[in-house]
Amino acid sequence: MNRRQQEQTIVSLIRSLGTSLKNRGLYPPAHPLVRTPVKKCCSEILLFFADRQELALAISDETLVFEGVPIFNLTSSLELFMARLAAIGIPAIVFEKGLVQADIEHFIRFLHETKEEGLSPSDIQERIEEMGVTHIRVKPPSEDEEDDFSLAREIYGNAIDAVASVMQEIRKGRIPSGAESDRVVRDISGMLQRNRDAILALTLIRNFDEYTYNHSVNVAVISLAIAEALSLDSQEKTEIGVAGLLHDVGKTQVALDLIRKPGNLSIQEFEEIKKHPEEGFVLLGKMSHIRPASAYMVREHHLRYDRKGYPELGTDYAVNPRSQIIAVADCYDAITTMRAYQMAKPPLEALELMGKIAGKSIDPDILSVFKNVMGGYPIGTMVRLSTMEVGVVIGVGPEGRGPIRVSVLVDRQGTPLPRPEEVEIAGLDAVAATVSPGRSILGTVNPLLYPDAQKGVSPPAPPS
Ligand SMILES: [Fe+2]
């Protein structure tokens, strides 16, 4: 099952639990309206045991969280059920391999009979065991059991699929739904909260064939990281992320040859390209599940901080202040990406270049927030270590403060390693609990000096 199918199955099994619990109040325990949903729930849980020992569902702020990422597409009746679990004091439900239908029936009985609220997890555990539950725990899952990088990869892949599908639908002349874009943006946002570096590191992976899709997802991820640093509320974060993901959908209305054309454009060609923000605005306006703020940000993503740029919207037009978040993310990802007509710039150089256009093209305040997000050695920076090894920064910790994680690609003799070695180095203003002895960062390295090493730039692969 992919993440999408897993989420659908979880929603379905929670629905069955809710139905059984509701009917338990109306019918005897053996009644089919109580038993059948339990049977369905049990068979759905068993699907997860094909490749795992347990299914852990955490409950945080009355929201269901699976593998660190909230599931938002619950209906209001399911949310009521979740609120009930949260009120009793259940922090997580962990279904263990070996689970049988009777476990769920006893658990439903516990939910039905328990009227108290705010019980401790150990109290709840004791009571459900007394009722005969053997393969359900109510303790939250251990954090390090899960692999953040594979989860981040899956979420990133879903986002690529979402934007690709939107653009393909539009090219066929159809207006797609924005529901999937909304969902993947919430997933990215959840992942940024869980392990920011894991998802930010994925913006380094360059797939030249799918530049537009990669760029769209990168802009969504970077915009959301800035929104997160600004402590915006979740609705605003979603609006910004969706705008980042779909900022260039208007390019579907421009001839592909023109979009891919390397080198300089003629005045007429540039006039064509300049239509894409307005085209995007119109398209987003027609899509379901898209909030108007996202459409306005798409319209304004090439509008400069000094009100130059395009489209021309008149001096009394009120610009959404969040549009500059998309502009900053768009600019950073474009500068750090190698394209047919442009060499990629290293992250620090990109930030320096952006500093020169701050106050003119881009908002200096948003740029400074972004610099804080990226830290002194942004993810993707190639560095030389005190051991003379060369590596790439793949993690900088929250708010850009260390410890810094470096994937070492080249040994002290200058020979590329067969497999990158990950090391942790104390940050500039923080002391790491576990740091690599004897290693510190001497400075940045021009990645062009190590073109072969650069190919290895990617987050560590999950253990096989
Ligand atoms: Fe654009």
Spans where pLDDT lies below 50 across 5 or more residues: 141-145, 430-434, 453-464
Rg of Cα set:
25 Å
Associated small molecules: fe (ii) ion
SSE pattern, N- to C-terminal: HHEEEHEHHEHHHHHHHHHHHEEEEEH
Strand content: 5-15%
Oligomeric state: single chain
Number of strands: 10
Instruction: Write down the domain tally.
Output: 3
Termini gap: 18 Å
Helix content: 40-55%
Reported for the largest beta sheet, the result is: 5 strands, antiparallel
- The count of helical stretches stands at 17
Strand order of the largest sheet: 3-2-1-4-5
Description:
With 464 residues, the protein is of the alpha+beta class. It folds into three domains: 3-144, no CATH class; 148-374, Orthogonal Bundle (Hypothetical protein af1432), CATH 1.10.3210; 382-454, no CATH class. The chain is 48% helix and 11% strand. It has helices spanning 3-24, 32-48, 76-88, 101-113, 121-130, 148-171, 179-201, 211-229, 234-245, 256-260, 267-273, 276-286, 292-299, 323-335, 347-357, 364-374, 451-454; strands spanning 54-60, 63-66, 69-71, 92-96, 136-137, 382-385, 390-395, 404-410, 416-425, 441-444. The strands form two sheets. Strands 3-2-1-4-5 form a five-stranded antiparallel beta sheet. The protein has a five-stranded antiparallel beta sheet with strand order 9-8-7-6-10. The structure holds fe (ii) ion. Residues 247-248, 276, 301-302 line the site of fe (ii) ion. Residues 247-248, 276, 301-302 line the site of fe (ii) ion (FE2).
